[in-house]
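If you are new to this repository, start here. Below is one unmodified record pulled from the training split, so you can see the exact layout before writing a loader.
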Amino acid sequence: MLPEPYRLHHRADFSRTVRRGQRVGRRDLVVHALVHGYDGFVGASGRISDPVVAGSMVRIGGPRFGLIVSKAVGPAVIRHRVARRLRHMCAQVIPELTAEADVVIRALPGAADADSAELLRQIRGALRKLDVSPLPSEYPGGTLDTTRGSGDRS
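And here is the target side for that same chain:
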């Protein structure tokens, strides 16, 4: 389950992320990401692309995720199953992302048959390519713990 502060709810947020953010396509997913700065939207190049009217946006919590699972993926039972799996994967990658990121994941028809490990690998690869993770200096000790989520339990 994806906690409430980490969800995109409004159509405007989805549209803004898809239209103004960067996009990476994978075999079973398309991932859109938009990073918000204090005075506008910051793209992967670091440029502020759209100033925000003062006081028009308040961010609470960390990165926010939205899912798009169309009828092309399959009947309702399959679509809901894919959405549940994707929500679970989004919850796993929250610590790896900067708090100012909005991410929209569009499931393609192949997502219905892909296993969870493959989907998670595609999501992480796309997010890495979109460069929405914080700088290593923002982590305690200056490094990112890459062993988390690898399946090892100690």
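Two things worth knowing about this chain: The chain has three helices and six strands. The beta strands are 22-25, 29-37, 40-42, 48-50, 64-69, 101-107.
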